[in-house]
Amino acid sequence: MQYQDKDFGTIHITVNPRARRIIMRPVVGGLRVTVPPYRSLTLGEVKEVIDNHRSALLRNWHKVNERPVTSDEELKYLRKAAKQYLPIRLAELAQQFNFHYTGLKIQSSRTRWGSCSGTNSINLSLFLMRVPEHLIDYVILHELCHTVHHDHSDRFWALMDEVTGGKAKELRKQLANYTTA
Ligand SMILES: [Zn+2]
């Protein structure tokens, strides 16, 4: 049996007589679910189990589905989109929450989404253009908060919570589902 899922793609469900529990394995373009035969599981029950493990599964799914190389064409597109969007959004959020930064560099960094220098100049990765807008905001706000606290202290996270409506850690968790690769 199979069905479509908004995050994973095709969910393939198979019954394995030797399975002792539900096993979920991310594959390219989908998820393989093996269920034990001892009782008939409804599709609703399988979906519920997937939902309960969705964020962790998604993390692994992204590793499996990661594109190894970004084509020159895609990189060009991302860079153009980043240059159009990020400077404006950074300025908006800085103004909204009264932060001051000294500059912005858009980088093709694959190791981090952003950083903030000792002189409060902000670097943002062009790969941010692949994540949802509210998570781009999270990264921008994260770097803007570093203009006030240059560390990840409790005071830093308290400020993050102030500017994200108390959702800082939740947003950080969501961002972990994406990679800069
Ligand atoms: Zn940080």
Explain what this protein looks like in three dimensions.
- There is one protein chain.
- The protein has 181 residues and is α/β, with parallel strands linked by helices.
- It folds into two domains: 2-65, no CATH class; 72-175, Zincin-like (2-Layer Sandwich).
- Helix content is 44%, strand content 19%.
- It is built from six helices and seven strands.
- It has helices at residues 43-52, 54-65, 72-97, 133-146, 154-163, 168-175, and strands at residues 2-5, 9-15, 23-27, 30-35, 103-107, 114-116, 121-125.
- Strands 1-2-4-3 form a four-stranded mixed sheet.
- The longest helix has 26 residues, at 72-97.
- The radius of gyration is 20 Å and the shape is elongated.
- The relative contact order is 0.11.
- The model has no long low-confidence stretch (mean pLDDT 91).
- Bound molecules: zinc ion.
Question: Tags for this entry?
Answer:
alpha/beta; 3-stranded mixed sheet; 19% strand; 44% helix; 6 helices; Zincin-like; 4-stranded mixed sheet; 2 domains; binds zinc ion; 181 residues
How is this fold's topology laid out?
Layout: E1 2-5, E2 9-15, E3 23-27, E4 30-35, H1 43-52, H2 54-65, H3 72-97, E5 103-107, E6 114-116, E7 121-125, H4 133-146, H5 154-163, H6 168-175
Helix pairs in contact: 3-4, 4-5
Bound molecules: zinc ion.
Return residue spans where pLDDT drops below 50 for at least 5 consecutive residues. Answer: none
Oligomer: single chain
Helix content: 40-55%
Strand order of the largest sheet: 1-2-4-3
How much β-strand is present in the residues? Answer: 15-25%
- Label the structural class: alpha/beta
Number of strands: 7
Which term fits the overall shape? elongated
Mean of residue pLDDT values: 91
Question: In CATH, what is the class of the largest domain?
Answer: Alpha Beta
Rounded to the nearest angstrom, the radius of gyration is 20 Å
State the fourth-level CATH superfamily of the largest domain: Metalloproteases ("zincins"), catalytic domain
